[in-house]
Every structure is written in C-alpha cells, then in structure tokens.
C-alpha cells in the first residue's frame, strides 16, 4: 500500500504527463500523425453559407450578390480609405474617430484599429520576450491546461478558423490562455476568457491577442479582471446597476421578469462576460465591440438596456421563464429583428440618455476587481491545484456570491412592490427624478427614493432627429431584417 506522500507524488506525475500530452498535441497541430478523435472534427458541407467573418450558416449560397450587397461593398471600400488616413494620423480623442467607430469599423480595418485602441504594439515593444517566457513556463507548470483544452475545442466551432481540431487558431487560443494563466496567476483562467481571446484571434496574431487580452483584463477602462476573478465582484456590481436602471426606465418589464423569476443573472452572463458574443448576431456584436474598445465598459450596461428596450413588447407577451430566456439567449442571436445600423443608433441614444441622468456608470469598483499582485512574476501552484483535486465545500468568496444573489433578488421583490401597477402602460418616455447632488445620486442608486431631491425630468430613449433619419434610411429595407455579414 502506498503512503500518502507516494500517492501524492503519483498524482503529480500523472498531472504532469497529461499536461505534456496535451501540449504535444497542440505542438503537432495539423500534422497527419496527430491523434484526433472522429467526433472532434465536424464534417464540412461546402454548400453552406460562410459569411465574411468565417461563420457557417444553414442555408444555401445565393446565385449572385444582390444590389444592396454590391452597394454596401462599394461604401465599405470608400470607408477603408478614410480609415487608412485616420490610422496614419491617430488621435484617440478626436470626435471624428468616435463618429466613425459608431458607424462601424470596416472589417478589413479592425486588425489595425483594435490594436490601436488597445495599445497592443506599445505593450509588445515594452514587454519583449515576455509572452514566449510565459508560454514556456505554462508548458511546465500550467494547472489550467485540461480545462483550457476542453474550452478551445468548444470555441467558435462553426467558424472556419476554429472548426478543425488543432488548427492554427485553435493552437493560438490554447497558447494564449495558458500563457496568460501564468502571467496573471491571481486570476489564472476563467471560461469566459476563451471567447474573448477567440474574438481577438479572429483579427490578430497570437502574441498580439495575448497583450490585447491583458489590456481588456487589467486596464481600468475595461477591467475584465473583476468579471473573471473568483467571486465575480464586477458582475455583481453591474447586475445591481442593471436592476436599478430597469426599475427606473422599464418598471413594467422589470416587474414582469420578477413575476416569472427571470433574474438578470440568468440572461446577462454572456452579455457582461464576453460583450454579447453568441447572444446577438455576430456582425452586431462586432459593432458593439468597436464601441466598447473606444468607450469602455459603460457600453455593456447601455447595450443590455438597449436590447431589452427594443424587444420590450415581445418580452411582455411571453408568460413563463423558459420562453423569456430562450428568446434572450437563443432567438435574438438567430434573428435580432433590427438591422445593425438601427440597433447601434438605439444604443447611442440610450448611452446619451443614461449619461444625462447619471446612470451610465455603476457605483465605483472595489479593490478586489483589480489585480493586487504583480503581473508576469511566476508563482508555482500548490500541490492541491497541481493535482487538480476538487474542493468538497464552497469557499467563503463563493458563499458570498450566493448570498449576494439572494439578497439582490429579495431587494428586487421589495422594490417592485413599490413601483407602478403591473397593468400600467409603459411607453418610450419615462419620468425620472434627477438628484441635484452626488450624495443624492448615491442614495438613489442604493434604492432610496429620489422624489425629494430634485425636479422631475423626462427620460426618453427616442431622439427625434436620429429617429427620422433612421426611418428614412430604412424605407427600402424591412426594419425587422437581420443583415448577417454586412
């Protein structure tokens, strides 16, 4: 019979062998000698549509491009030229840049534009050889390799770049995630990071994606560290803020959700964690990413409200939790119901109105949402983590998350009882009271009444000029048409 020390050493050896085996498969890549199980490679069907982002769809290729697509291609080529000039004379604070980002970065320009917005080239220049060092260390010490391997094999499998097992992009995704788990040991790896890094790799090379991912995680403008760290403190903060906005702007829908036990955490995880990828059409999620990289994480809150506002009437017709969640998690991805331009114009209006009423950003982040330990300094994991032994009990942080969710649901139930009648008609214009001072704003965000602190103002999600402009632009295009791949 083995002693405890011998058993522990045997488990450590097994973990090291498994890690080396997985890394070897990624090193071989598409080499014919690499072992790939039949189920890991979906069969190709060349008669499917493959859109310009590389995603395959269950419909036949058209015989020819229609006049609208030809016109869109001509317009995008002209916009390419303007972006070339703007990138050569880069000014991130120029109003022209903001206007063009809201129009959508041309797909061919996303590679250089996203690198500029995330300061990728500067990070690479000041951290020469760091990525390769982290990757080398991960091959020896990564404790996340098994989970990363599983997630790589699930990420974007309907996209040509990631579809084949151990393809170049799959290898890059595996490398980036393992290297980052060593670079930021306090964070390690969280599943949502695979989707974020996957989007970046559609437009960047491997090391570029690594530093872009780091910018999204540690830069205060994006601060995704707080989303992925144990306990998800930023998610909790954003969910609470989302509930406050819902209660003020769409009380009827908020009450409808509460009646059917539809907590925001059930439908908004992929909204907040991966910036709407796989929850809305990919072409639209890229437009949101463009704005997110320019404006920061306040865009996520505004887009969440925009989605619910645009689809409010349909959501109010759904009478149980399952159908509401299916609508938000599945149906909107397949058919958003509005074309991308219309949705982004609605987002811009929402951002403007939320800012006017000081609701565009949640309360300040706490220190646990940011890295507290130096990045890039290797820290060897403890034995339990190396072995991969599962804990039998929740940690204190996990218990606190559960407690926070329950408390938020109870608070929502109390607040809903004090709002307008469930039968009251809700329209685009909602009357809000705006506090006159910051202390009152903090109080109102904490759930207290604002009635005694200021005068009543009208919160409207419609802007007459923009709305008229949009209506004219859509005269020849059905409003409820999804333009995938445009």
TrEMBL record:
GO MF terms, alphabetically ordered: GTPase activator activity; small GTPase binding
Entry-linked InterPro entries: Rab-GAP-TBC_dom (IPR000195), Rab-GAP_TBC_sf (IPR035969), Rab_GAP_TBC_domain (IPR050302)
One Pfam family cited in the UniProt record for this chain: RabGAP-TBC
Domain Rab-GAP TBC residues, every copy: 104-296
PROSITE patterns documented for this protein: TBC_RABGAP (PS50086)
SMART domains assigned: TBC
SUPFAM superfamilies to which the protein is assigned, alphabetical: Ypt/Rab-GAP domain of gyp1p
Name of the protein described by the UniProt record: Rab-GAP TBC domain-containing protein
The species this protein was found in: Stomoxys calcitrans (Stable fly)
Gene name of this polypeptide: 106089688
């Amino acid at each position: 019979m083995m002693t405890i020390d011998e058993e522990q050493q045997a488990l450590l050896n097994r973990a090291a062998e498994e890690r080396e085996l997985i890394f070897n498969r990624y090193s071989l890549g598409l080499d014919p000698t690499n072992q790939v199980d039949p189920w890991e490679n979906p069969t190709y069907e060349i008669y499917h549509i493959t859109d310009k982002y590389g995603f395959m769809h269950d419909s036949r290729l058209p015989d020819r491009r229609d006049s609208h697509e030809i016109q869109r291609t001509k317009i995008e080529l002209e916009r390419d030229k303007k972006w070339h000039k703007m990138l050569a004379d880069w000014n991130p604070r120029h109003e022209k840049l903001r206007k063009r980002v809201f129009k959508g970065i041309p797909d061919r320009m996303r590679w250089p534009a996203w690198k500029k917005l995330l300061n990728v080239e500067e990070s690479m220049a000041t951290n020469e050889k760091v990525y390769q060092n982290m990757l080398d260390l991960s091959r020896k010490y990564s404790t996340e390799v098994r989970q990363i391997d599983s997630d790589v094999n699930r990420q974007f499998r309907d996209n040509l770049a990631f579809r084949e097992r151990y393809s170049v992009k799959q290898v890059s995704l595996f490398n980036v995630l393992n290297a980052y788990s060593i670079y930021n040991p306090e964070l390690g790896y969280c599943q949502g990071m695979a989707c974020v890094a996957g989007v970046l790799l559609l437009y960047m090379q491997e090391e570029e994606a690594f530093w872009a991912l780091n910018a999204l995680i540690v830069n205060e403008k994006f601060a995704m560290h707080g989303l992925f760290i144990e306990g998800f403190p930023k998610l909790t903060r954003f969910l609470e803020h989302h509930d406050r906005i819902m209660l003020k702007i769409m009380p009827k829908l908020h009450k409808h959700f509460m009646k059917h036990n539809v907590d925001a955490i059930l439908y908004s995880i992929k909204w907040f964690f991966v910036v709407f990828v796989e929850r809305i059409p990919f072409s639209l999620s890229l437009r949101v990413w463009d704005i997110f990289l320019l404006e920061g994480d306040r865009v996520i809150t505004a887009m969440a409200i925009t989605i619910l506002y645009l689809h409010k009437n349909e959501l109010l017709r759904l009478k149980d939790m399952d159908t509401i969640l299916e609508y938000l998690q599945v149906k909107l991805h397949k058919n958003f119901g509005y074309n991308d331009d219309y949705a982004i114009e609605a987002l811009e209006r929402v951002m403007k109105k939320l800012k006017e009423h000081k609701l565009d950003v949640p309360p300040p982040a706490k220190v646990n949402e940011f890295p507290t330990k130096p990045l890039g300094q290797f820290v060897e994991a403890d034995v339990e983590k190396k072995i991969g032994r599962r804990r039998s009990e929740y940690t204190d942080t996990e218990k606190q998350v559960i407690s926070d969710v329950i408390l938020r649901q109870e608070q929502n139930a109390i607040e809903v009882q004090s709002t307008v009648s469930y039968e009251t008609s809700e329209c685009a214009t909602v009357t809000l009271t705006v506090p006159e001072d910051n202390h009152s704003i903090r109080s109102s965000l904490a759930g207290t009444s604002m009635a005694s602190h200021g005068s009543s103002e009208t919160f409207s999600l419609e802007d007459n000029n923009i709305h008229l402009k949009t209506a004219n632009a859509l005269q020849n295009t059905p409003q409820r048409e999804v333009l995938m791949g445009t």
